[in-house]
Fold Pseudouridine synthase.
Amino acid sequence: MSQVRLDRFLANAGLGTRSQVKELLRAGLVEVNGARAKRPEEKIDPDRDRIFCRGEEIIREESVCYMLNKPAGFLSATEDRYQPVVLDLLEEKERKGLFPVGRLDIDTEGLLLLTNDGALAHGLLSPRHHVDKTYRARVAGLVNEEDCRLFAGGLDIGEKKRTMPAFLRVLSVTEGETGPISETEITIQEGKFHQVKRMFAAVGKQVIYLKRTAMGGLLLDETLQKGEYRKLTREETERLRQYAGK
Ligand code: URA
């Protein structure tokens, strides 16, 4: 395993949030190979270095990653006081330490990864790693070649920077009750809040259904019914790690 930041390692091991872990470091309660560690950004190798907190050795949990076919109606979060969250879909014994890799909106369906591996999640979410995320988007109105060209050039969605180039293609157009409906496929390499919906809004169109079908070289397993999940195979995990640079 490659090196990871000490604060991330400790947080992943369940010792608290990143800021709680920083407190532990400040209080001098953490040792790396027998020496007191104070710097949250210190790099450690979990396979070689021995980390103790309050005199107890911290053993790294085995990294696990699940793919979930997220149904609408669930928040991409570990807990919420008011609404069901994606972790509720997992059996209780499998939930420990897991969190969603990024977010899908509550009404978005499809491929959501759940892991206990902070470094893997971070690598997949970093815009620097250009991890492809592909969505099926059903859009009210006629999506045309000009829209595809605009998406490819990057759009102003009200952020400081324009979006990175996105690949958009139209799969089919049908006549709905109130006008045409376009079935499209879009691939983006970022994950800004409501990004796909905001990109279509920027060209004057509204997304009426959204489903993620692929992420980081991994396709949604279509044998998974909505709400079902499975562990990634070793080969799938390796592929993800390559995308994530981990
Ligand atoms: N873009 C969106 O607008 N929503 C999602 O859930 C994912 C990408």
